[in-house]
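so my prof wants the structure for this chain in the tokens format not the other one, which i didnt know existed until like an hour ago. anyway here's the sequence
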Amino acid sequence: MQLEYAITAADHLDSMKDRYRRSLRRLIMIFMGLFLLLMGIALYPYFERSWSVLEIGLSLWILALQLFLPRIVHWRVYYRNREIFGPRKLNISDAGILSDGPQGRIETPWSRYVRFRETKRLFMLYLSNDVKGIIPKRVFQDASQMDSFRNFVSARVPLK
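here's what i got, hopefully its the right format
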């Protein structure tokens, strides 16, 4: 199977949102931000007002950062390195994936992939927890080709 595409800004942002949405660290930071916010509000009348205002401000910063972190990371990675997301050709075979892209030719055997993940708009093949290949679903000609790809890859890489 051969696929040709470029990774768009929307594709990359979707992959970042997926990564941060499932993060335990993000849930802990949201809980901590909410806890600090409630403590700052509850203790406002009892302590020096500057400390409560500082605590409320810090908690709002933590919560805002958790909301915007995927977009911040996306902007820093995608727009500073646009050349690595350019047009590419994938050749998917029993041996693995051969990618001819802007940075050269990369051949990766199936044994190197640690997991396979599907979202609403993307297929993602992970080489590690942070390094992944993005294949947008829009590149498939029809649903049967997409199903064929899904079945082919999930037989070779663990689905998570």
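also thought this was worth mentioning. The beta strands are 2-5, 88-92, 96-101, 104-109, 115-118, 122-126, 132-136.
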